[in-house]
Structures are given as C-alpha cells and as structure tokens.
Specification:
The complex is a heterodimer of chains A (about 650) and B (about 170). With about 650 residues, chain A is of the alpha+beta class. Chain A is built from 20 helices and 28 strands. In chain A, the strands form nine sheets. In chain A, strands 4, 5, 6, 7, 12, 23 and 24 form a seven-stranded mixed sheet that branches. In chain A, helix 11 runs antiparallel to helix 20, helix 13 packs parallel to helix 15 and helix 13 packs across helix 16. Chain B is mainly alpha-helical and about 170 residues long. Helix content of chain B is about 75%, strand content about 0%. Chain B contains seven helices and no strands. In chain B, helix 1 runs antiparallel to helix 2. Chain B is rod-shaped and about 150 Å long. Classes of the chains: A alpha+beta (about 650), B mainly alpha (about 170).
Chain lengths: ~650, ~170
C-alpha cells in the first residue's frame, strides 16, 4: 500500500483566500479555466488570486484513520515479527545449533593431547638404556607479551638463549600478525622452568613434555639410535621400532572456568593414551660398557680412525654387545652415533679364509693334512690391463704347505689354490650359505647386505681373490655371524638384537628364537675349529690367547679401497681384524674385532697385533659377565 | 458434595432464625423485613484453613526442592574438585615414578659403578683364574636352592615387577 497514493485519493480540506472552505478530492479538482484570452479585470483577479495562493498555501488537515485497521496492521506486524523470531529460535535449536554450540564449547572446553609415554629400551639384565622422563618446555604467547625486549633479556639470563634464538623471539614479539605460540626452550629441567615461572613474565608459560634420555650414558648409543626433539625415532633401534615404541596419544576435553577448574556437572571426555611397547634387547649393559671403553682405548692407542666389535652368543645368535667407535672432526675418539658394524661393508680380508677352508673341507676335496705347492707369488691376467700379482704377506719361495699350515700362516696363494679345487660355483654357494650378500635378520635401519657377485660373474683374478677375502664386501655383523656358524657346529644362526617386548598391558613376550640353517657338517666345523685353534696357539693370532681356555680364531688384515685400487706399499690404509670363539671345544661366545685404519707406519697395523689383543681383553670381560666356565680338561694352548 | 450440604443447612438455619424474628416483631413491618431477609445473597463458607495449608505446603516443598538442588550442586562441585585433585595427584605420582626410574637407572649405570669402584680402590681384573670346585660343594649349593644363571626364565623374572606395574598403571591421564 502506498501512503502517498492513498493520501492523494483521500479527501482534503482546503481554505481559500475568502475564508470559505470547500472540500474536494485531489483527483476530482475543478477543471482549470478553459484556455482563452481573459479580460483585464479578470486577468488581474486571477493573477492576484495566484499570488495570494502562493503567499498563503492551503492548510492540509489529516483525518483520523480507521483505528481498527491500524490495530490489525500493528498486531499483524508484531505477530509476523514474533513468528520470525520463533522460527529463528526453532532453527537455532535444530539445524543451526551446531556452530553456536561449537562457539560456546570453544570458550569453556579445553582440549589437550595426552602424549603416550614412549616405550623404554632395556638391556637384557633389566637396566634401562633409553627412557622417557617428564621435562618442562618454556613457551611464549607473543600476543600477551607486553615488553618484548625485556622479556627476551630476562629469559636469556635464565635459559642462556643463543643470539639466534633471541632474535627469533624478538621478531615473533614484534610481528604485525603475532602467533599464539612459540617455543622458547624445549625439554629443560623442571628446576630451570620453575625459575622462569618465578619471573612472572607476561605471556610466558611452561608446559610438560617428555624427554628421551640414556641413563647409562653413551652405552649402546650407536645401536639405540636417536629421537628428534618431538620424540620420533630417527636412527637406530629408535627408528626401527618407532611404530611400537611411540604408543598412541590420548586426548582430554574438559569444561573449565576462568581459573582452569573443571565445571561441576559439565561433560568431560578423556581418551586414555596407550603407552608404547618396551623393548628388551639382547645387549648386556655391563659388557657393552666394557667393550666400548676398551675399544675407545685401543683405537686411541693405535691412532686409528675407528673400530667395531660384535659379541654374540654362539648358540642363540643373541648379540651381547655391538660397539662402534670413531674419531670425530676434533680428532677425539668417541662412541659413534652410527652403527657401523651393521651399516658399513668392507673387504673382509684374511678372515674370509675361514669360509673358503670350510668349503674345501666340507666339499671333501681336502683335509687339514692335504698339501699343495705354494709359490711366493702368482700373476693373473698377465699381459692384460687386469693383470694382478698376488703374493703372501710373508715372502717365501715355492713351498709345500698343508691346508692346516695355510690357515695358520694365512697364506693367500695357498688358500686360493685350495679353493680352486672346489670351484667358483660351489664356493659361491657356500659363501651365500654363510650369509654374505644378504642382510641379517637383525634388519637394522640402513643395514648393509654387502656386495658379492654371482659365481658365474667372477672374472679374472676375482675368482682367486674372493677365496682370501677380496672382491666382495661384508659388514662386521655378517662376518661375526658367518664365523659363528663354524663355532655353532656348522649351523648358521641368525643374529638378533631384540629378546622380548612388554606390551601396553604389561604382557612380557619373548621374541621367537633365531632362524637357523646348516651350512657345513658338524665334522667339517670341528675340523675347521681345530685349525683355528692352531691359529691362536701357534699362528698369527697368538695375542688372542686367554689363560686356561682354548680359543679358536682367525686374523685378518685387509687393504682398504682408495681411488679405485688398494694403493701400494707407500700409501696403503688398513683394516685389522680378528674373529674368534671360545671355549673352542664347546663355544659359548663369538667375538669379532675390527680396527679401522690403524697407524700404517706402526707394526701393530695387522690383525694379529691390532685386533687380537683387544679380543683377549674382551674375552676375559665376557667370561666374567657371562659366567663362562672352561670345558673340563681344557688347558688352552698347552700341548699344541 | 459436602460443601453443598453445609450450604443448605446454613440456609435452613437462617430461615429458622428469620421466623423467630417475625414472631417477635409481628405486623407488616415484619413482613417487609422477612422479604428483605429472603432477598439476601446466599453466602457460602470457604475452607480457608485447608487452602492456606496447601499453599504453605507447596511453598515448603518448593523451598525443600530448591535447597536440595543447591545442596546437590554443591556436592557435585565438591566432588569435581576432589576428582581434579586426585587427577593431579595421579599425574604427580606418575611423574615421580618416572623420575625415580631415571635416578635408579643412573645409579645402576656401569659408568657410575666404575667411578665409585675406583674411588674405593677397585680396578678391573687383568687375568682370569678358574678354580676347581668339588662336586660335593656343587651339590650342596644346588640343594640350597640358589638360582642359577639367567636363562629365558630369568629374563622373564627380571622384568616381572616392571610388567606388573605397567599392567596396573599404564599411563593414566
């Protein structure tokens, strides 16, 4: 309805200049004078009338309208408004309620993540190697910080913040669009956090976080690996078992008042976290400590680059110790953060003669007393670009040597001549049986499988050198497990690091026993063991002897690859090694020691001098820690 | 129904008293007066006491309900506070447990043991000497029930306590 139009049709009262009043409708006004010329008097009168009309406009009086209609209109209007409000209320209570509910909830509901406690890593004796403990993290809310520079100065005085961190905080506090949360210092001691809180700095607070620590110091550091600041495994066993160690985070939702107290009767939802699974390793903490201490000392003595040690149980394959030591950029020897024993492969050198001789014995092509004419040197691929001369470490002329003597004196040429009787294919199968070219069952992160070609691909001198440990690579772990096969009566037992787990419900579950496979016959293994005893008693491994207990072992000194070759007498770099087991009659433990790059000018750069003495020292430690007793009648090297 | 009966009785009573008045006064004046009495409205008696009792009862009931609601809310708040305190105590106990575990592990660490042993004048053995034990002694020791080397059963036993605690406590929120 248009009010103006309605008013136009409404009767109006008009008073003319004569005072008379007449009524007419605006739509029915008297017609204008017909067009035409007026007389002078009449014209003057009209003009005067018009002037009078212009000077005094007519008074318009509005009549009182229909009250009932107006009331009805207002009531309808009010009812309509109420209906709209009612409809809106209904909508808010039904379909449109969720956003408002969320807004309301967000004002009073505090949701927090309950971080699941990361599983503990135990040594086999129950000692904790890695645990998560509560710690404090200082944070800041830049929106609440009043005086940025002063706050940073105060925090620096307590926490010793770096210059970079200080600048980062200042930038955060001064930013146009401020974040709601920035870390100031993570995983600090509770006492330090308490000092920060006592400063009562605006916008600075403390939250609880878990920190991964190794309470036993660096014991087993290279095996355990690392977690990042968020508690995620990034190396070693921490990475390998990340899935089961980390657990499942929980959540807590509570309605709280301004003071942080729970609202009585309000809803509260808590999803309990599931703690991580604990790992029980086969590592013996005490033995690991002694091994690392002794290896550090030995590497320092030999001015070597590093070294590795693997100690494993002969029958079960349990690894009691796996130590890695390296020289850092500051020329300091330290426990390595990398498990080089598993991830680094190298030419095994003379240690590999154990496998060639075992193959020869097991294939039945020779006995310890079988002899062969061994020249002082041999040349392969003569006249070609692949020409290579092979000679023994100890110069000699043409010499008749028995297989036993070949092993005891570690003759390269004698070994390759004997291995030729077996043939490449058979030797390759034996080497595969000993585990070369395949990652061990430990399945350590980035573990090396070593490199060994198929036997049919061995070319030129390669077929000869592989028999005495050049031309293929293996890790310390593979070598230890391979020699352990001989110690274990010819049965390969897969090494293992994980003995058991304790799941979130507290159930203790032992890991299944290691897989085994027969590689050589028990008789062959016994024969090789007997020859290896001679290596220790009268051969290159004499420094590995221990009192009142027989030891079987083999030395190894290999040249390291450099620039595509092994260098010459002036610039060779070495890897010295010794691997052995004891008591030889009934082996309990197999130990592998490698020393990486001992001083090349020293006479102690050879396996028998660099590694064998350390073997003897570690063997004594193992005897103490593992309570190993000599077999009845064992007199060590007496009588041999 | 009872109220109606009482009203009728009152009406009869009033009529009886009116007749007595007529007998005393007599004449037309009395007749007029009788007509006036007959025109009076019939008043009824309202059981006010019962109504008052009901109102008071309702008020008392409402007051009791309100007081009960207030008491219930107070109790609810008190228990919530108690729950919060227990919650924080559980968390504190967990933290203490973790700290104690760390301290125990540090105290048992080989490095510290070596350090302490060195302070006491002890040093690692450089040689090993095995002694022979007579079979009689071995048999005696075995009869005494001293546990042997830690085999698989020993491994389980070593972690039995820890597993038991974990199964009970886990990581409560």
């Amino acid at each position: 309805m248009n009010g103006r139009g309605h008013a136009g049709r409404r009767p109006v009262q008009v008073t003319d200049r004569r005072g008379s009043t007449r009524r007419h409708s605006s739509s029915t006004r008297p017609p204008a004078h017909p067009p035409g010329r007026r007389t002078g008097h009449a014209a003057r009168r009209v003009v005067a009338r018009r002037a009078a009309t212009r000077a005094a406009p007519p008074v318009i009086e509005f009549r009182v309208g229909d009250t009932r209609k107006r009331m009805r209109f207002v009531v309808n209007l009010f009812a309509g408004a109420c209906a709209v409000v009612l409809a809106y209320c209904i909508w808010l209570q039904t379909g449109g309620s969720e956003p408002l509910l969320q807004d309301g909830r967000s004002q009073r509901v505090r949701e927090s993540v309950i971080v699941a406690q990361r599983g503990t890593i135990f040594a086999r004796d129950g000692g904790e190697l890695a645990i998560s403990v509560p710690s404090s993290t200082v944070y800041a809310d830049p929106r609440m910080v009043v005086d940025g520079p002063s706050t940073v100065a105060s925090l620096t005085a307590v926490l010793g913040l770096s210059t970079t961190k200080q600048q980062s905080l200042l930038d955060s506090f001064a930013a146009a669009e401020k974040k709601a949360f920035v870390y100031v210092a993570r995983q600090i001691d509770d006492e330090l956090a308490a000092v920060v809180l006592s400063l009562d700095l605006e916008g600075v607070g403390v939250i609880e976080e878990e920190r991964r620590i190794m309470p036993s110091g660096e014991v087993g550091r290279s095996v355990l690996g690392l977690t990042n600041v968020d508690g995620e495994g990034i190396a070693g066993l921490e990475k390998q078992y990340e899935e089961i160690l980390r657990g499942i985070d929980g959540a807590r939702m509570r309605e709280r008042d301004r003071e942080g107290r729970s609202l009585p009767g309000a809803s509260s939802t808590t999803v309990a976290p599931i703690p991580g699974t604990d790992l029980v390793l086969t590592i013996d903490r005490s033995l690991q400590f002694q091994v690392e201490t002794a290896l550090l000392s030995r590497v320092e003595e030999l001015k070597a680059k590093g070294g590795t040690v693997v100690i494993m149980d002969t029958a079960t394959g349990d690894i009691y110790s796996m130590a890695n030591v390296t020289r850092n950029e500051f020329d300091e020897v330290e426990v390595s953060s990398a498990n080089l024993a598993a991830v680094e492969a190298f030419d095994p050198g003379s240690v590999a003669k154990v496998f060639s001789v075992a193959a020869v014995i097991d294939a039945g092509v020779a006995t310890p007393d079988s002899t062969v004419e061994v020249p002082g040197s041999m040349t392969f691929n003569e006249g070609t670009q692949w020409e290579q001369e092979v000679h023994d470490a100890k110069p000699h002329g043409l010499q008749t040597m028995s297989l036993r003597q070949i092993v005891v004196d570690s003759s390269n040429i004698g070994t390759l001549l004997m291995a030729q009787r077996v043939g490449n294919t058979t030797l390759g199968e034996y080497l595969a049986g000993f585990g070369f070219g395949t990652r061990t069952a430990v399945d350590f992160p980035d573990e090396s499988a070593g490199i060994i070609k198929d036997a049919e691909d061995w070319q030129g001198a390669e077929a000869a050198t592989i028999s005495y440990g050049y031309g293929y690579t293996a890790s310390s772990l593979q070598l230890a497990a391979a020699v352990n096969t001989v110690a274990n009566g010819g049965v390969y037992v897969a090494p293992r690091l994980l003995a058991a787990t304790i799941d979130p419900s507290g159930t203790f579950a032992e890991e299944p026993a290691s897989a085994t496979r027969r590689v050589v016959s028990p008789e062959s293994a016994a024969t090789v063991t007997d020859m290896l005893r001679d290596v220790v008693c009268s051969g290159t491994g004499r420094d590995a002897r221990i009192d009142e207990m027989s030891v079987a072992g083999k030395t190894g000194t290999s040249y390291k690859l450099q620039g595509g070759g092994y260098g010459d007498a002036t610039n060779r770099i070495y890897r010295a090694s010794f691997v052995g087991f004891f008591p030889a009659q009934a082996p309990r433990v197999t130990i592998l020691v490698t020393i990486d790059e001992p001083d090349p000018t020293s006479n102690d750069r050879f396996g028998g001098k660099a590694a064998a003495p350390l073997f003897a020292r570690l063997a004594r430690a193992a005897i103490h820690e593992l309570a190993i007793m000599p077999v009845a009648g064992d007199t060590g090297c007496d009588g041999r | 129904m009872a109220l109606a009966v009482r009203t009728e009785h009152a009406r009869i009573d009033r009529r009886g008293r009116g007749a007595a008045a007529v007998a005393v006064a007599g004449g037309d004046r009395l007749a007029g007066s009788r007509a006036g009495v007959a025109n009076r409205p019939n008043l009824t008696v309202v059981p006010r006491r019962r109504a008052a009792r009901s109102i008071i009862g309702i008020w008392v009931l409402a007051a009791i309900l309100m007081a009960g609601a207030a008491a219930f809310q107070t109790q609810l708040a008190r228990r919530q506070v108690t729950l919060d305190i227990l919650d924080s105590q559980i968390r504190a106990a967990h933290d203490t447990y973790d700290v104690l575990r760390r301290e125990r592990a540090e105290l048992r660490s080989p490095g510290r043991l070596v350090e302490q042993a060195a302070l006491l004048g002890m040093r690692p053995a450089e040689s090993t000497e095995f002694i022979s034990i007579s079979p009689d002694v071995i048999a005696e020791v075995q009869r005494s029930g001293v546990p042997g080397d830690s085999g698989p059963d020993g491994l389980v036993e070593e972690f039995a306590d820890f597993a038991a605690v974990k199964s009970q406590a886990g990581r409560a929120p």
